[in-house]
Amino acid sequence: MQGMIDTHLHLWDLERHDFTWLKDFPTLNRTLTLHDHATDLAGFDSAGIKIIGSVFVECDVDEQCLERETIWACGLADQSENNIVGVIAGCRPDHPDFGAYLDRIEHRQLKGLRRVLHAQPDELLRSTAFIEGVKRLGRAGLSFDLCVRHNQLPAATDLVRRCPETRFVLDHCGNPPRDPTERIRWRASVTDLSRELNVVACKLSGLFGSVDPGRDLVTQCREIVDDVASAFGLERLMFGSDWPVCRIGGSIQAWINCFNFIIADWPESARQRVLATNASRVYHLDVG
Questions:
Q1: What is the average pLDDT value for the chain, to the nearest integer?
Q2: How many CB atoms lie within 10 A of CB 184?
Q3: Total of domains in the chain
Q4: What radius of gyration do the chain's Cα atoms show?
């Protein structure tokens, strides 16, 4: 049995926190917990791969709930039976009280922070306040997850260059587009970003949203994985399920099976790095 670390797990409790974005996704607009996650994985065996730990990633909670979500997630991580080995909290680096916020959410399981930037203008990433806030993460020993659209990758690269002491992780391979012409631009942009050495990892996650569901999923996802592997190298790739958002394009079982097909012919040492070793190093995880 080979151990896998899932670097991108979402959970939400609609009785505790508010998520305006969920109103546009009826199939996800309900409380989804570790119990639901276990149900989706019940009886699953993909070539002897077992999830040995998961990293909770903030869920684009409404701003007034940011701190409550973080405290809740860290509380889940404190309970070993939950198998949550790290937390990536939500944040607003450009806010004047960002430093005080970091002080309040300090926790041994807090590994990094993220802001979903899909709906934000590029000007935010280039603003002095945002840059200074992200720089603060580097001084605090915390990473920043880049969650951007493919056409925001140049702005993300500018941010990375202005924050050389902060470690960055690219979510969802930079959300490659389906359009072939746009895919060429994505490939150039993600390669440019990969040249920055403080971009310490790229998550192989969320890919079902970047492919045509009417065509072979493994072939399409393999093309993306090959592109980012060429750009980042295998020592900077990590697996992520993006559960339960992955349900929109399939299921967690379908994605793990797809991923397993893609890496089946890789050398064992490369498989182990992408499945677990890289994640442990990047997020400083304590996984038994």
A1: 95
A2: 11
A3: 1
A4: 18
Give the C-alpha distances (Å, rounded to integers) separating 22 from 8, 17, 28, 31, 194: 18, 12, 7, 11, 32
State the pLDDT at residue 2.
80
CA–CA gap between residue 81 and residue 79 (Å, rounded): 6
Residue 49 maps to a domain? yes
| pLDDT tens column, 36-76 | 999 999 877 665 778 999 999 999 999 999 999 999 999 99
3-state secondary structure the chain: CEEEEEEEECCECCCCCCCHHHHHCCCCCCCECHHHHHHHHCCCCECCEEEEEEEEECCCCCHHHHHHHHHHHHHHHHCHHHCEEEEEEECCCCCCCHHHHHHHHCCCCEEEEEEECCCCCHHHHCCHHHHHHHHHHHHCCCEEEEECCHHHHHHHHHHHHHCCCCCEEEHHHHCCCCCHHHHHHHHHHHHHHHCCCCEEEEEECCHHHHCCCCCCHHHHHHHHHHHHHHHHCHHHEEECCCECHHHHCCCHHHHHHHHHHHHCCCCHHHHHHHHHHHHHHHHCCCCC
CATH of the domain at 152: 3.20.20.140
Residue span of the structural domain in which 63 resides: 2-283
Q: Is residue 288 part of a domain?
A: no
Reported pTM: 0.96
Model pLDDT, residue 136: 98
* Burial of 98: CB neighbours in 10 Å, binned 0-12, 13-18, 19+: buried
Q: Is residue 242 part of a domain?
A: yes
> What are 199's strand-pairing partners?
168
Assigned token pair, 60: 């684009």
CA nearest to 134, candidates 110, 150, 152, 112? 112
